[in-house]
Specification:
Largest sheet: 4 strands, antiparallel
Radius of gyration: 30 Å
Strand content: under 5%
Oligomer: single chain
Shape: extended
Number of strands: 4
Distance between the termini: 79 Å
Length: 405
């Protein structure tokens, strides 16, 4: 967030220069006018190193931060505290520097008569389209506290689902990382010791041993790393660049939905996310077409986002959501049938929440099943790597023993 400076005068007529952080000069002027009786021309401060500004740039607002803020904000609004007062109290006790500054700016704009949703819309790094749309709906309907509680619940569910997947993958990732380190360590430091012994023996080395000696030499050569590191970095950069293209994102996301082991998990996660967000939005009073725009932007998978966009065009013509999504062939039939029942009974939001509950349970079971499959595979892989190294070292010894015999 940029820093602005202006000549100001307090109620006693004392003049001084005051710095303030704001998204624009206009916002800085409004914030200063609330604090001082006279404010001169507002100018952007020169470029200077600031540890606090660097910390703010490196800090991100997590889902947990927004969930805690929403829950506290809802409790205070429900207690009858004015919104400006709520924002002031929450900004004072907020531990996240980026969220803290955004709350200060939002509070200043709300004091000037700007709606809460419009004020939050100016801070997309802290409050995304989903959050702003629900706040808008809460303000219009006069149920801001209820909407904030629903937002907190939604964010907590999303965080819980993400934590389940991360915690399940933590063990296989750690084992794989350690296995790679062990392989490099044994290849670079253990094999050279045996290589000197083999040279003294003067015996012909098996093909596996020759290959491992060659690999050890490559690992200990700086020319090898000069080639391999840029190659790996270039490959990663190329994939990321291709993923930014619409066609590339569509192809990679399509592969992720069909990939062995993780494809089913990705599909269930996306369906659970879609139903949870859509159900929460419709329950909060957000229009259907706006809901589709938001879930499309937050789908996390381009194939699913394309299917939602195609379904939206049919819904604008008066079609049903379940029928439109069924034609795209992306969502599971169970989810489509549940949506159809919800539309027929007029309880689409409740049915969406039930579908989300079901698929979140499915994701949890899928994660446990995936973990139970990956763990033995990782152990076998580690044993295979160590076994290959040891076998390549002992094969020449067996040959020497046979010659001596």
């Amino acid at each position: 967030m940029p820093t602005f400076v202006a000549e100001v005068k307090d109620s006693k007529g004392n003049a001084k220069k005051q710095k303030i952080d704001a998204t624009s000069a206009e916002q800085a002027l409004m914030m200063l006018q609330n604090q001082y009786t006279s404010v001169g021309q507002v100018k952007r401060s020169g470029v200077s190193f600031s540890l606090s500004e660097l910390t703010e740039r490196l800090t991100s607002v997590s889902v947990k931060d927004k969930a805690v803020f929403s829950r506290q904000f809802a409790a205070m609004v429900n207690a009858g505290v004015a919104i400006v007062r709520c924002l002031s109290i929450l900004s004072d006790q907020c531990p996240n520097v980026k969220l803290k500054k955004s709350l200060v700016g939002i509070s200043a704009e709300v004091q000037q008569g700007t709606s809460l949703g419009d004020s939050m819309r100016k801070y997309p790094e802290c409050f995304d389209k989903l959050y702003v749309a629900m706040v808008d709906a809460g303000e219009i309907g006069g149920v801001l506290d209820q909407v904030l509680n629903r937002l907190a619940t939604l964010l907590e569910n999303m965080q819980r689902l993400a934590n389940q997947i991360k915690s399940a993958m933590a063990y296989p990732t750690a084992v794989g990382f350690i296995a790679v380190l062990v392989f490099f360590a044994m290849t670079m430091f253990l094999i050279p010791v045996f290589a000197a012994v083999f040279e003294e023996l003067g015996t012909e080395l098996p093909a596996l041993t020759q290959f491992m000696l060659f690999l050890s030499g490559q690992f200990r050569s700086w020319q090898f790393w000069i080639v391999i590191i840029p190659t790996i970095a270039g490959s990663i950069f190329g994939v990321k660049t291709y993923y930014k293209l619409p066609q590339g994102r569509r192809q990679i996301d399509g592969l992720l939905l069909k990939a062995p082991l993780i494809g089913d998990l990705n599909e269930k996660t996306a369906v659970a996310r879609f139903c949870r967000i859509f159900g929460t939005l419709t329950r909060s009073g957000v229009p259907i077409l706006s809901c589709l725009d938001i879930v499309r932007d937050t789908a996390g998978n381009q194939v699913i986002a394309d299917s939602i966009e195609a379904a939206k065009a049919e819904i604008q013509q008066g079609g049903m959501i379940s029928v439109a999504l069924e034609r795209e062939g992306v969502f599971p039939m169970l989810a489509i049938q549940m949506m159809s029942i919800g539309e027929e009974t007029g309880e689409l939001d409740a049915m969406m929440m039930k579908v989300a509950d079901f698929y979140e349970d499915e994701v949890e079971q899928a994660v446990k099943a995936l973990t139970s499959i990956i763990e033995p595979i990782m152990m076998v892989g580690v044993a295979a790597m160590v076994g290959v190294i040891l076998l390549s070292m002992y094969l020449p010894m067996f040959k020497v023993f046979d010659e001596l015999g």
